[in-house]
Amino acid sequence: MDFELTDEQRLLRDTVRDFAANEVAPVAEELDRTKAFPYELVAKMGELGLMGIPFPEDCGGGGADTLAYAVAVEELTRVDSSVAITMAAHTSLGTMPIHLWGSVEQKSEWLPELCAGRRLAAFGLTEPEAGSDAGNTRTSAKLDDGEWVINGAKQFITNSGTEISGCVTITAVTGENEISNLIVPNGTPGFEPGEPYRKMGWNASDTRPLAFEDCRVPEANLLGRRGEGFKQFLHILDGGRIGVAAMGVGLAQGALDEAIAYAKERRAFGKPISKYQAIQGKIADISAQIEAARLLTYRAAIEKDRGESFTLTAAQAKLITGRLAVRATEEAVQIHGGYGYIEEYPVCRFYRDAKILTIGEGTDEVQQMVIARQLGC
């Protein structure tokens, strides 16, 4: 397996790295502090083609592969997780279902706007009693005179309530022991995004609950075949875990970058603290673990691009990268000492952003369950 990036992938990596350093880094702290959604950055990412990286060029996408997408997510997360999750959730959770199972009409209506970043897409799976137990969906949709009548609630939904949110694809019970996916455009009567959550991290991203009360959408808004919603969202979660794993790698790398830079500048007892073995040991361990995690994440992306089974590798990558992000950011804060506890230093934000990577897109415990099942246990 060749892990070397192609010329096109390296160009994309460098483009995103420059964008993150020059456009995202200068405003990341303010966006986090004010909890402001990064509309201008999303527009610029759309102009750069970053909001539709893995989708076909004929619908406005970048025509790139999963590995290129993962590299882009990693580079964004090295600087700011809120911007990264906005792009990642829009791509792997919001737009991907329409690309994979949408009708010709659905694709022509949504994909050009979504790939250009003029509209955001969301995926509504989690409910108050259907998180890790995603099959316990309670939201219902019943056909009535050529329309689906939707009632229920979703929670923790990313990109669902911004000024540019275009649609959310939701799972709903459409019959006995039957779950289907439906596209619900923002602004549909009976569909009400709730107030944004007050969160530990990802403060500049949009996350909120959704309510559906006699919300009516055309029968043609069914996404894919009726009754295949459960199978569809499991596939979406598998692919989404590659993006979240890339976020874990990127966040750990960003924390390490900050820790190394600070350790070289901070002096104690007459020399930079980077010269002390206690600091060197932390840096060396995190560096080695990041490289191993990056290769595993790339392997999952390559398996997906080859059309091979990637469920096991994606779950393994997601499990170890989330835990690595937590450890790497904690060590970066420790290396910074008291300054690591101050909001002006990026590692403080990184530390708060890290924990969700062990919860979202399937908790660590769910990943362990997936891995064990894939190994025949």
Brief description of this entry?
The protein is an alpha+beta fold and 377 residues long. 52% of the residues lie in helices and 16% in strands. The protein is built from 10 helices and 10 strands.
Structure description:
With 377 residues, the chain is of the alpha+beta class. Helices cover 52% and strands 16% of the residues. The chain has helices spanning 7-34, 39-48, 66-77, 81-101, 104-115, 229-265, 277-305, 311-336, 346-354, 364-374; strands at residues 120-124, 140-144, 147-158, 165-175, 178-185, 191-193, 207-218, 222-223, 267-268, 271-272. The strands form 3 sheets. Strands 1-4-5-8 form a 4-stranded mixed beta sheet, covered by helices on one side. A hairpin with a 2-residue loop joins strand 2 and strand 3. The longest helix is centred in the middle third of the chain and has 37 residues, at 229-265.
Overview features:
about 375 residues, alpha+beta, globular
Strand order of the largest sheet: 1-4-5-8
Distance between the termini: 27 Å
- The geometry reads as globular
Rg calculated over all Cα atoms: 21 Å
Return the string of H and E elements: HHHHHEEEEEEEEHEEHHHH
Q: Which residues sit in consecutive blocks of at least 5 with pLDDT less than 50?
A: none
Helices, strands, pairings?
Blueprint: H1 7-34, H2 39-48, H3 66-77, H4 81-101, H5 104-115, E1 120-124, E2 140-144, E3 147-158, E4 165-175, E5 178-185, E6 191-193, E7 207-218, E8 222-223, H6 229-265, E9 267-268, E10 271-272, H7 277-305, H8 311-336, H9 346-354, H10 364-374
Parallel strand pairs: 1-4
Antiparallel strand pairs: 2-3, 3-7, 4-5, 5-8, 6-7, 9-10
